[in-house]
Every structure is written in C-alpha cells, then in structure tokens.
Design a protein that fits this description.
Layout (H helix, E strand, L loop, with lengths): L4 E7 L5 H4 L3 H8 L3 E7 L12 E2 L9 E2 L1 H12 L7 E11 L2 H7 L4 E6 L7 H7 L2 E4 L9 H12 L10 H5 L18 E2 L2 E2 L9 H28 L11
Parallel strand pairs: 1-2, 1-6, 5-6, 5-7
Antiparallel strand pairs: 3-4, 8-9
Amino acid sequence: MGHTIRFDVLTLFPGIFESYLRQSLLEDAIQAGLVQVHPWNIRDWTQDKHNRVDDRPFGGGPGMVLMAQPVVDCVEAVQAKAEPPGKLVMLTPAGERLTQRTVEKLAQEPRLLLLCGRYEGFDDRIRQLLSPWEISVGDFVCNGGEVPAMVLIDTVIRLIPGVLGDDQSATDESHSEEGRLEYPQYTRPRAYRGLEVPEILLGGNHQAVAKWRREQSELRSRERNNRDNRDKANGGCESSDSNK
C-alpha cells in the first residue's frame, strides 16, 4: 500500500464527528485503509474532580480559557498511542492560513493530531510547551475547532493516492496551481432554463476542448485576482478572529 494518513482529533465534543466519518468519500477511504480518523475527548485527561477543562482568564476578560494541564496531557498520551507520534496542528486564529500549498505539506505527513479549541481559546502555555503547527481556515469566527478540523481533513485526504476515483481530479481542481481556478463544468441536459452547454464541449474535439478549458481557467483566475485586488484597494473587511 502507498501513502496513508492517520488523523487524531482532540476535542471536547467527539460526538460531532460520528456522522461526519460516515460521509461517502471519507468513509470509503477509511474502509479502504487509506485514512484513519480517531476522535479523542480532552475531558478524559482532566484532573479536576468536576471534569472541568476551562477556567476564567487571568487579568480578567470575557469567557473561559482552555486549561493547559488536560490539553497537554491529552496530546502527550495520544501521541504515545501509535507511531510515529505525529505532527500536532492547533486550529487557531493566530495560525497561518490554510491554503492549497499548506494542504500539500500536510498531506505528506503520515499522522496529524488536530487540536480543537473552544471558548476563548487556549492557555498560551499549551503553545509554548507543545510547539504546534498553528493553522487558521480563514478570517471568520467558528464556535470551535471541530468544523475547521473537518475542513482540514476533507482537503488533505483528496491528495492521498487512491482516495479519489481519478487522481487527476485533484490536479485539475481550483488552486492546484497558485492563483488558478478551475474551468466551468457542464452535464446533461444540454439546455436548461434557456442556458445551453457551450457548443465546443459537444463536438468531440479533445484538443479544442483542452484549449477552451485553459482559456476559461485563465479568464476566471484573472477575474478573481482583479476582484481581490479591488477589495484590497478598498480596505477589505477582514476579521482578525477565527475558529478559536
């Protein structure tokens, strides 16, 4: 068997992943032995008699902060459960943006531990002690790191050989090259609500189709880049927070 990957998801809500793991492409990859996903409950490592894993922030402020002890103990225990210990990824707004280039790097790892935050985030000693790879899925706010973890898993498994029915699919997709978007796709019927499939796709001339697709990809990419540049020139509207 070629390259496979294991995900260990460290979360306060492992039940969130029950239905996710049964979705078609991921479930098929798991059954084929190409992907493993193991959710773990951080609460199982708390030393607090009330099973608490969070507390008020020193210095005051709203909300609660995830305590260092249960998180650090959970990470170290899960790392010890299999070899290799794996690369620890912390889903945090302070992390680098998840791009296709980052996904390609992640897909080279045999094992990833995905640390999902909640509340107002992590006690910073977790970061200092464990030196995780900090990743953010975007400039927006999620209730926790579970959905970003699913996003990361979804993007990474597509690059594991054998997961997609046709490995060329990952090569032709948007962002497979920096700044490039995929060409438009069509299927039956040929006409729908007054919109018709471009004639060039119906004639069976594969060279002409390939040329048209390249041109459409370049056009879409150029339009997207122009729009992004206009947004930047107008000051944008980005938030500094995401996925806690």
